[in-house]
Amino acid sequence: MPEIVQRTMVRAPLEEVFEMSLDLDVERVAGKRYGVRAVEGAGRTTGRIELGEKVRWRLRIMGFPLTHTSHIVELDRPHRFVDEMSAGAFAQFRHEHSYVPEGPQMTIMTDRMSWRSPYGVLGRIADVLFVRRTLSRLLADRNSEIVRRFS
User: What is the pLDDT along the chain (151 residues), one digit of tens a residue?
Assistant: First the structure.
């Protein structure tokens, strides 16, 4: 399965960075490039998501509307949480979020995103042509918004 690993330094305490990362409103602001928003139908649409909760995301990629439902399957506050796709365009999707303090006012966020695209060879070609780039941008936009909120 393809994988993206991204590390981001945030000048803020571990607990605050972790809580900010669970906030769906951060995702909405960060996802403007792709029109990301939480919509009714799966669970929470605003505020902080918790273990066992789901959120249905709607976004546009290359002009095509997509829906992706995430389910928080693991949560170890304030060190780690994992969301997995329960419905959407991928055959499989998993996003692990890890947080490590680097002193009292610095946190290292590590995102590990893995997926399997549908449609066999066509899906693997899509991964190379645009899926990896799009997911990397979504992740970078989200993490930049978190860093910005602590600046």
Answer: 999 999 999 999 999 999 999 999 999 999 999 999 999 887 889 999 999 999 999 999 888 899 999 999 999 999 999 999 999 999 999 999 999 999 899 999 999 999 999 999 999 999 999 999 999 999 999 999 999 999 9
Q: How far is CA 22 from CA 9, 17, 19, 28, 146, in A?
A: 17, 9, 5, 12, 11
Residue found under tokens 């899509």: 126
Handedness of CA 109, 81, 28, 122 (dihedral sign): positive
Helices 14-21, 132-149: axis angle to 10 degrees equals: 130
Q: What are phi and psi of 51, to 5 degrees?
A: -55, 135
Full-model pTM? 0.94
Is 18:147 a contact under the CB 8 Å cutoff?
A: no
Q: Which amino acid is at 38?
A: A
